[in-house]
Amino acid sequence: MNHRELATPAIEHHARTVPLRPFRRSSRGLLATVGLLALAGCASDAPLDTFKPQGPEAQTIQDLAVPVFLVAGVVFVLVLGGILWLSLKYRDRSHGEDPTDPRQTHGVIPLEIGWTIVPALILAVIAPFTVVTILDLADQPEGPEVIDVTVIGQQWWWEYQYDLDDDGEPDIITANEMVIPAGVPVNLHIESRDVIHSFWIPALNGKKDAVPGRTHNLTIEADDPGQYRGQCTEFCGLSHANMRMRVYAVDQAEYDTWVAGQLAPAPVPEAGTPAAAGQQTFIQACSSCHVINGLEPEDYQGAPLVSGASPNLTHFMSRTTYAGAIFETYLPPDGDEDAQYLDIIENGQFDRAQLEAWLRNPPGEKPMAPTPNEYSDGLGRGMPNLNLSESQIDELVAYLETLE
Ligand code: CUA
Description:
By secondary structure, the chain is of the alpha+beta class. Helix content is about 35%, strand content about 15%. Mean pLDDT is about 85; it is low at about 1-20 and about 300-305.
């Protein structure tokens, strides 16, 4: 006897209505997930938004990404809609009472040819635009106004070396944040000192890996003065997530002032002041890693501008952030996280408590591995706890405060 013959009208009624329930329950979950994802895309103030280009390079990417995204969106809706429609139309309505397969068919030649050729055509149309965009972005502009900056990824911060006179030697060395003039192309030459990092300021260009032993070029330019944030996007160890960066674009006059300030030597603290004591502490405790230009005591001769594994601190107070740009030197004026560079430097309130906490126990403030031999090369990574006394910390902060 065929089980189909057993079906009573009651079961048939059952079969028509009940199987929809599990679908409704799972569809609620699906709706919630899709809704959450959609809402997550609504953040109005997302500093790493890839769809808000603020410079010509980022705009070039946008001009390619948006049409490709639209085409992909149409394909997505057609394919997924088709799958959903077919799944619903041909679903098993017998509620498991009739597990026999539906009639099997194979191949509709016009359709088979169609969905082979159409994707190939779409790709063939997109490909030349993609290649042209890639070549366009790879071209670095030339000219006297163009600025060259070597970017060095390190565990876990970024070093920027400005070569102002094109002699191949760095003239300004800073960390974590770059100050650039708005409307001027900046040619970056990206390197790494240790592992692979990835440099990414989404508003100004795409991301570019920093690979040891290689130099990768990337050009950034900001249309307008402003603050542009970024994040290392290649996993590089313990504090990968704490390896951020910023670009401050300023007008040309502000940039010239900034350059002059960066080229000036560090001030010498007056004898007998806390800052002078702090300078001595710096020489004893910090100078085996950190460099301050011109600070060359007898036991500290021929100091290079580049210390290697640690930021050059000559103009520490001219930076709005430190420790991989995770701490702010100044509380932003009026709590405005997007404040302009000069506004922060001039009107922000110096966050002494955070700097003291950092000096008291750096690995406690930011995950680091400063103990030698934790890595196979026997070197530590990041700033160790130097067990400074409270008075040493006070004096060090007094000294750092003079480094404008
Ligand atoms: Cu550097 Cu991740």
